[in-house]
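Troubleshooting log. The previous structure file for this entry was overwritten by mistake, so regenerating from the original sequence record. Sequence copied from the archived sheet and checked twice against the printout by T.R.
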Amino acid sequence: RPVVSTPVAGFRDAPGTHVTIATDDFAAVLGRVLEAHSPTIGAPAGLPTWDAQAALMADALGRAAGAAS
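Regenerated output below.
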């Protein structure tokens, strides 16, 4: 997967072409990378989605609210 980062240690000197460093407009750089890689970006099997993670968090909050009553 492509990575977009600010120029911080660990990313700014990363080898390879999968890391793009955004030194100015992070959102614009991110948009360009997403457009360039959109056909290849997808969630591999078994990788949690944002929707699944949000459902887990909602469940945990609901249980915590019930326990606090």
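DSSP finds two helices and two strands in the chain. Archived copy saved in two places this time.
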